[in-house]
Design brief:
Elements (H helix, E strand, L loop, with lengths): L3 E4 L2 E4 L4 E7 L9 E6 L6 E6 L5 E3 L7 E6 L4 E6 L8 E7 L9 E6 L1
Parallel strand pairs: 2-10
Antiparallel strand pairs: 1-3, 3-8, 4-5, 4-9, 5-6, 7-8, 9-10
């Protein structure tokens, strides 16, 4: 089992930046594909960005060019750098092991216009 702990959320004005972190337990992190999801009030959870064990990235169209996912296997951590934030980015952001039902507790991101 993998435990995930997110951090780095907060409140920011539109146009600002935040960096989310997700620390994973265990010794197989380097083998795992990881993803960041978000869920806004009244909406379904959606995939924001994902990264494979080999470093291949993909993004939702709504965040391309603004968000960057990365990983540090030595620290068992995956990051989400969020720039040029918009009010519609407001949501709870969750870390996930792709293909598995392992989720973090979520971290709130609030963007005010």
């Amino acid at each position: 089992q993998v435990q995930l702990v997110e951090s780095g959320g907060g409140s920011v004005q539109a146009g600002g930046s935040l960096r989310l972190s997700c620390a994973a337990s265990g010794s197989i992190f380097r083998l795992l594909a990881m993803g960041w999801y978000r869920q806004a009030p009244g909406k379904q959870r959606e995939l924001v960005a994902a990264i494979t064990s080999g470093g291949t990235r993909n993004y939702a169209d709504s965040v391309k060019g603004r968000f960057t996912i990365s990983r540090d296997n030595a620290k068992n951590t995956v990051f989400l750098q969020m720039n040029s934030l918009k009010s519609e980015d407001t949501a709870v952001y969750y870390c996930n092991v792709r293909g598995h039902d392992y989720w973090g507790q979520g971290t709130q991101v609030t963007v005010s216009s």
